[in-house]
């Protein structure tokens, strides 16, 4: 799939700005397609791009904050030691290393999401962390109360999943790159890689 995805017949320059015509290789017919990295049409609605930018900034910012608070224990948060203890209660081993890895992942992946670089890939580990939080707090009930609740974590998981499939939008460093043109195919590849990584983490640490 990856070979087919990145390969294409030689383009024939078209008469429309920002478009090229690709020969289908059989009948000789050509199909107009947007050239990689070509600018959007002047009349394109910027609303979806702004919406995705806002979503990226909020979701990425939340995960960055969670990663940083594990290092700096802001506002009385338990920090790395407290998070490691929570992981031990969930049945994980090597919790100090896992806590450190989780914090770094939140900061790095959240930062990539904010700037829109490899955003679909960066959303995958964030999705995994959010889903794990839902699973391990499911018995606390749906609504967020003093006793717990997983609705907030479910919302983060849904937002991260949406960004995996939609991509980061035009206002990002990913815009114009080859994989940016195929967000759904990119998402499937990244989700498979994320599933493998999750299986490895569970095997090693639990």
UniProtKB/TrEMBL annotation:
Keywords of this entry: Cell membrane, Membrane, Transmembrane, Transmembrane helix
Cellular localisation: Cell membrane
GTP-binding is among the record's keywords: no
Ranges annotated as spanning the membrane: 49-68, 107-138, 150-167, 187-205
Predominant place of localization: membrane
Pfam families in UniProt: DoxX
Highest rank taxon of the organism: Bacteria
Membrane topology: Multi-pass membrane protein
Record has Transferase as a keyword: no
PANTHER family noted in UniProt: INNER MEMBRANE PROTEIN YPHA-RELATED, OXIDOREDUCTASE CATD-RELATED
Family to which the UniProt record says this protein belongs: Belongs to the DoxX family.
Protein name: Oxidoreductase
Organism per entry: Actinoalloteichus caeruleus DSM 43889
């Amino acid at each position: 799939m990856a070979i087919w995805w990145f390969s294409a017949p030689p383009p024939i320059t078209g008469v429309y700005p920002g478009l090229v015509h690709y020969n289908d290789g059989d009948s000789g017919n050509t199909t107009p397609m947007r050239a990689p990295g070509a600018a959007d049409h002047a009349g394109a609605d910027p609303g979806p791009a702004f919406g995705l930018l806002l979503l990226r900034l909020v979701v990425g910012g939340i995960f960055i904050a969670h990663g940083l608070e594990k290092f700096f224990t802001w506002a009385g948060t338990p920090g790395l030691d407290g998070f490691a203890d929570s992981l031990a209660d969930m049945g994980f081993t090597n919790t100090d290393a896992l806590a450190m890895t989780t914090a770094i992942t939140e900061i790095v992946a959240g930062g990539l999401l904010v700037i829109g670089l490899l955003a679909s890939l960066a959303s995958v580990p964030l999705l995994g962390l959010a889903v794990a939080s839902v699973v391990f707090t499911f018995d606390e009930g749906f609504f967020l109360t003093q006793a717990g609740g997983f609705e907030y974590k479910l919302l983060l998981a849904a937002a991260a999943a949406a960004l995996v499939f939609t991509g980061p939008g035009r206002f990002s460093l990913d815009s114009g790159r080859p994989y940016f043109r195929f967000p759904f195919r990119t998402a499937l590849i990244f989700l498979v890689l994320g599933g493998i990584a999750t299986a490895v983490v569970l095997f090693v640490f639990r």
